[in-house]
What we know:
The protein has helices at residues 9-16, 20-28, 46-53, 57-60, 75-94, 115-125, 137-140, 145-153, 171-190, 195-209, and strands at residues 6-8, 35-36, 42-45, 63-70, 98-106, 131-134, 158-161. By secondary structure, the protein is of the alpha/beta class. The strands form two sheets. Strands 5-4-6-7 form a four-stranded parallel sheet, sandwiched between helices. A three-stranded antiparallel sheet has the order 1-3-2.
Amino acid sequence: MMSEKLLTLREACRRLGVHPNTLRKWDREGKISVVRTVGGRRRIPQSEVERLMGFVKPDASRKAVIYVRVSSHDQKHKVDLERQKQSLLDYAKSRGYEVTAVLEDVASGLNENRKSLSKLFGLVEERRIGAVVVAFKDRLTRFGFSYLERYFSSHGVRIEVVNGEEPKDAYQELVEDLIALVSSFAGKLYGLRSHKYEKVVEGVKQLITE
């Protein structure tokens, strides 16, 4: 049997929306059960946080977040972003979902430090939603979608991909991601200023843009 997840004081306060001093007071008054580490630090069981938040999991199962992403700010991508939003809102409505947020990023699918993606992870980890709706798998991540799907599922959240294959006009973004990937590996192997680095990157650019 797996042990229950323990949250740090900061994590628990963020989820509950209270000041750390408030949580410390609740601990002294016996309003919340905490676990002490060997060093005397407070760790709060996730079940305690959920109890105070009044979590009712069935309610969360019909709540959804829409996530959209494009790679740049140009007009073409702005139009695509709005198209993604509207299509996914229509889908969510047809499924009877309550859309709690529409999150959008303008960044490469290889970028792991996307602002809205981080917000999405927070909602998933706090079990505030039951579904994440995306147009294509690569909107969430260029690689490792199955790992992301499994992680979300472990928090009771499903990923619903509305469309199958990427549209043909996504080719340019895929090319840009591939060049970025090759550049990263070549930079680590040869150094960003080396002749070999430039040769490898330029060779790949010529090969895939011919």
